[in-house]
Design goal:
It contains seven helices and ten strands. By secondary structure, the protein is an alpha/beta fold. Among the domains are: 66 residues, no CATH class; 64 residues, no CATH class. The strands form four sheets. Strands 2, 5, 6 and 8 form a four-stranded antiparallel β-sheet that branches. Strands 1-7 form a two-stranded parallel sheet. It has a two-stranded antiparallel ribbon with strand order 3-4. The protein is elongated and about 70 Å long.
Length: 199
């Protein structure tokens, strides 16, 4: 009995020591490399727009956006590999390449084509609003036949111009990567052109 208990204690101690060594190895691997005797900077935060290029963008074929796009403080960000101008060394890699978080359109599975087709053919029953995550307006459209077809036509225009998007604040998945429509809101910081006074 004592021999079995002693061997169990030795087994537990050896497992604990092995786990501690693995944790220490993980810490040393995750540490950033140090470039001794070199003038390096934090390229991801200190470089200005003309001092780096992100030419090889990693595009996800399913979302047509940058791969790894996540919502952060209301805007989409994705990690991308960039390279600094020759002569600039980054302290994270000891060379001119670094990872930078670029802006992207965060998507959550809502397809633009699907929303537009649902609005054109089944919008009078509110199916487009149900699809985009607006169940209350979808129920009202269903019970009034698309607000007597006026709301049906308005929703077709709103979805086609991408003014009406998904309820969760995500962007549409469009079947190409490139320029899209961007809503420009008028806020207190928007400059308004001064008009002449009318007398």
């Amino acid at each position: 009995m004592r021999l079995g208990l002693a061997s169990l204690v030795l087994l537990l101690l050896s497992c604990t020591i092995a786990t501690g060594e693995q944790e220490q190895e993980g810490v040393t691997e995750s540490e950033e490399p140090e470039c001794w005797g070199e003038d390096t900077i934090d390229c991801a935060s200190e470089l200005l727009a003309g001092q780096y290029l992100c030419t090889s963008l990693d595009i996800d074929s399913e979302t047509q956006q940058l791969r790894g796009c996540r919502l952060s403080n209301g805007t989409g960000k994705a990690p991308q590999q960039c390279s600094a101008l020759p002569g600039i060394l980054c302290n994270s890699t000891c060379n001119s390449t670094f990872t930078r978080y670029e802006n992207c359109n965060w998507t959550n599975g809502y397809h633009f084509d699907t929303a537009l087709l649902l609005s054109v053919f089944l919008g009078m029953f509110g199916i487009d609003r149900f699809y985009l995550g607006y169940p209350a307006i979808g129920l009202l459209k269903f019970s009034t036949l698309g607000f007597f077809f006026i709301g049906h036509l308005v929703d077709i225009i709103l979805i086609a111009s991408q003014t009406l998007g998904p309820a969760d604040g995500s962007h549409y998945i469009i079947n190409y990567f490139g320029a899209g429509l961007t809503r420009v809101p008028v806020t207190e910081n928007t400059y308004r052109r001064e008009q002449q006074d009318w007398y």
